[in-house]
Amino acid sequence: MATIEGSKLFEQCRIFILCSPEISLETAEQLAAVIEENSGEPSIFESSPEKTDVIECTHIVSSTINFQSYDYFSNALIPIVKPAWIHTSLSKRKLVNPRHYSPDPRLFLNDVVVTCGDIPEGDKDAIIGAVLAKGGLYSPRLTAMVTHLVDLNADSDKARLVKAKAMRTKIVLPHWFDDCLKLGQRIDEKPYMLPDPEILRAGPNDPIRWNENRDVAGASAPAPRDMPTPTSTPNQLKVFEGQQIMLSEDLEIGSHLRQSIEAVLEQSGATVTSKVEDANWVVCKFRKGIVYRLASRLDKVVGNLAWLYYMMTFNTYTRPLSRPLHYPVSPDPIPGFKGLKISLSNYVGEARIYLENLIAASGAECTKTLRQENTHLITAHGTSEKCNAAREWGLQVVNHLWLEDSYAKWKEQPVSDPRYNHFPLRTNLSDIVGQKMLDPVVLKQVFYAEESAGPARPMQIKDQNTTQSPGEDEDNSSETTQGTPQPAKKASRGPSEKRALQTPARSRLIPENKENETPSSTSSRKSKDAATARLHGYADDLALYEKEKKRVGGVVYGGRRVSDEDRVKLAHNPKKRRSAEPQDESDDEEVVDTKRQKRTRPPISMHLMITGYQKWIGKANEKKQDADKRHLRDLGIMLVQDARRCTHLAAPTILRTTKFVNALAYAPVIMSTEFVTNCLQQDKLLDPADFPLVDKENEKKYKISLNKAASNAKKNKNKLLNGYRIYCVEDIRGGFEAFKSIVDANGGECLLFRGRLALANNSRREESDDEESDVDDDGDDRAQHDVFLLSSTEPKHARLWPRFRQVAGEIKKTARIVRVDWLLDMAMSQELRAAGNYEITEDMVEDADD
Questions:
Q1: 317, 311 in Cβ contact below 8 A?
Q2: How far apart are CA 357 and CA 403, in angstroms?
Q3: CATH of 718-846, one of 3.30.1490.20, 3.40.50.10190, 3.40.50.300, 3.50.50.60
Q4: Per-residue confidence at 710, pLDDT binned at 50, 70, 90?
Q5: Cα 69 to the chain's mean position, in Å?
Q6: How far apart are CA 75 and CA 71, in angstroms?
Q7: pLDDT at res. 53
Q8: Least crowded by CB within 10 Å, which of 171, 289, 295, 534?
Q9: Best-predicted range by mean pLDDT among 134-148, 526-540, 590-604?
Q10: What sign has the CA pseudo-torsion 165, 169, 170, 173?
C-alpha cells in the first residue's frame, strides 16, 4: 500500500488497531507503519482495549464489532472502521467518511461499492441513495474497487468492460437492491446476476436452493444440554485469559457439570467468583432476579450458557447481544405472544432449530404440523403446501423477521408491516436467519430499569490500586453497555511522546502544569469517586443478595425461595389452594386452555373476500377488525385474501380495487357489505341472497352489468385473456403487481417493460389449442399477433414507446400501447374489448396536462 511522501494525513489521529482472525498481527504492524509514516499515532491491541483508553483514541480499526469494549467506544462516538478506511483515505488524500467503512452488520451494504449501468435515472438515484444510507459506497466510474454493477442486460458498455477485463465485479439486476431494502437485510446476489438471472428464467414450482447459515452456528439454543469439546486445549483458550467469571445459581446445572466448566475456565486463565461485584462476566439463564439485575446495572458482560459454550468451542469472543439466544431468556412471554401457535415452513438446518427455540423463548408454542387452530405460519418463501393452506384458513403468513423483531423489541410487531410479508423470488430466507441483534435500550427499560428515575448515572468502577482488575468499568452512557475485561495489550507503535500534535483527543487538552498527571490516572480518580457514590445506590440489592446467598439451597432466580411464607398466600379452602410452584401454575393454565379448545368452531360455510368495508378502514379500527374477523369465523365465515379461494365477495359499491376486479374472474356470489354488518349485529349466519349488491350508477359509469359479468366469468373459467401478452411500464399508477395479478387471474401473461429487455417470442396461446375468440379493431386479427403495453400519457412513459414498437417488430408482432382502462374494463365486464378504443399516441402526450 503506497503512502504519500511527507503526508500529514493522520496528523490529528490516534488510531487503535485490533488484531482478529481477519487482521493478523503482521497485518496490524503494516497498517501501523503506514499510519506512522503519515504522521498518525497507531497502537496495536491483540485483545480489546480498556475503557479508560477512550481518551487516548480517535479511531479504532477492526474487522468486527465483537470486541468487549465495543459498546463503550461506540457510545463515546469513537468511529470504528475497517482497514479499507486507511487505504481509501490515502488514495483520496483525505479522511473519508468512517460510516461507509463500519464493520457493523446492521449497515448491511457496508461491503458494497456500486456503479450503475444503463438504467433509468430515477432507479439510479434511488439505488445510490439506498447504498449510501446502508453503509455502502458509490463510484461514478467502473474501477477495480467496484463490487456491483447494476444493469438491465449484459450488453451495456460497462458490462462488456467487466467481461473483457475479467473483473470480479458482479453484474446484478436492480431487483436485488429492491429486495434487500424491503427486507432490511442483505440476501444472496446469485439469483439476480446477469447474463442469466434465475429470477427471470426459473419456473414457479422449481425448488429453491438454500445455503448453510453460519450466523446461527453455536447459537441456536439458549440452554445446550451438553458441554462442548473445545477445539483448543484449556491452555490455548486465550478468550478467557484474565477474566473474572461468575456462574449464577439459576443456570440449573448439576454439580459435576459446574465443576467441569469451572475447571476449563480456570485452566484457561480465568478466575471463577461468586460475587457479582467482583465479576466482569456473569453467566445466567433468566432475565430476572438479583444477580441478573445487579450485573446489568453494574454494566457487566451478561450472557447465558450457550454464549459461554460458543467461546469454548471457537476460542473467539462474541458479544451476547449479537445473537438473541446468547443472552438470558425471560421466564415471561412477550406481551401478546401467550397463546400463539406458530408453525414453520421451508426453513432448514440449524436455522429451523434456532427459530423453534426462539418461538419457545418468546412464550409462544411451536407446532410441528399446521392446523386450523394455528395463529401464524412463518415461512422462508411463499410457495409451499403449508403456505397455501395457511392462506386458505386465514392464518397470518409472515417471514422470520417478524419473530426476530418482536423478540428484540420485546413487543409484538404488526404483521401488516410489508417487511414481514415480503418473499423475494428464488431466495430461501433461511440464509439470513439469526442476524438480528438485541437492543440494549429495550433490555434496560423492560428488565432492569433503575427504580428511581434520574439523570444518567456514571458507570461502576471499584476502588483500585495502580493495576486495575479486569472487571472494573468506566462508562458514562445511559444505555446498557457490556463491561469489558482488560487483557494485556501490545505496546504502542506510535511516535515519540514528545511529538506535539493538534488532535481532537481529550488527552491533548491537559494543561501544561499537569503534564506529570496521566489522563488515565485523572480519569481513574474521577471514576473512583463516582463508583463509590454509585455503589451506595445498590446497597440494598447487595445486602439482599448476600442474605440470599446464605440460605440453604442458594439463590433462586426470583430472589426468593419457593417455600418462603411471604412469597405466596394460600387460600383458606385447601381444595382450592393455589400452588406456589411455577409448574403448578402452568398446569392450571393448560387445563383452562384445554377446556377452551373443546369449544369447536362451526364448519366453514363460505370463503368471503371483503373490500372497501368502511368500519375496518383506518389504524384506529385495527382491533375492531381483528375482533370482527374472529366473530365471523365463529359464524362459519372464513375471510380470505386470495381471490382464487373466495366463494363470496362483499363490497359497499362496485369498486375498481384489486380485490374486487380479481375476484370477478372467479365468479363469486357478490353481495353488499351490509351482509357483514348484519351478521355481526345479529350474531348469526344470514342468507347472502338477502343482501345483493345493487349499484346502477356505477354499472352505467363502467358500462357493465354485474349479473352479466358473473355469468361471463362462469363461462370464461379464468381464460378471458388466454393468449394475451401484456407488458406494463414500471412506475405506472396503481403499480405493476396489481395489474399483473388481474392479468394472471384471467389467464393472460403480464411482464414488466423497462425499455431494455427483448420481448419473448412465445405465448400461452401459441402453446395451447384452446378456442380463439380474441377480437381486434378489424375483428379478424387474433390477439396472438399483438403485444400490449399498459401505459399513461406521461412524457417519461412515451419515451419507451419507440423501443417497444421496435422489439415487437423484431418478433413480428403488432405493438398496441393502451390505457389501463382497457384491461380494467375487460376484467370487470368479463368481455373482450377492442384495443383501438383505448390506444394512446404521441399526439396525446403533447396535449397531456403533465
A1: yes
A2: 11
A3: 3.40.50.10190
A4: very high
A5: 25
A6: 6
A7: 76
A8: 534
A9: 134-148
A10: negative
User: What pLDDT, on the 0 to 100 scale, is given for residue 343?
Assistant: 96
Q: How confident is the model at residue 761 (pLDDT cuts 50, 70, 90)?
A: low
Quote the cell numbers at residue 435: 442476524
CB 699 within 8 A of CB 638: no
Q: How many CB atoms lie within 10 A of CB 418?
A: 8
CATH class of 341-437: alpha beta
State the span(s) of the chain assigned CATH 3.40.50.10190: 14-93, 113-199, 220-327+439-493+527-561, 341-437, 606-715, 718-846
Please tell me the total number of residues recorded for the chain in this structure: 850
Query: CATH classification of 220-327+439-493+527-561 is 3.40.50.10190, yes or no?
Result: yes
Burial of 757 (0-12, 13-18, 19+ CB in 10 A): middle
State the Cα–Cα distance between residues 443 and 451, nearest whole angstrom. 15
Annotation: CATH topology of 606-715: Rossmann fold (3.40.50)
Residue 590 has pLDDT above 60, yes or no: no
Which residue type does 759 have?
L
Q: Can you tell me which residue has the cell 345483493?
A: 692
Between CA 117 and CA 123, with CA 119 as vertex, the angle to 5 degrees is 120
Per the structure block, which three cell numbers stand in for 280? Answer: 466482569
CB 467 within 8 A of CB 353: no
Name the class of domain 113-199.
alpha beta
Q: What pLDDT, in 10s, does the model give residues 427-454? A: 999 999 999 999 999 999 999 987 644 3
pLDDT of residue 106 exceeding 80, the answer is yes
Grid coordinates representing 614 are 368502511
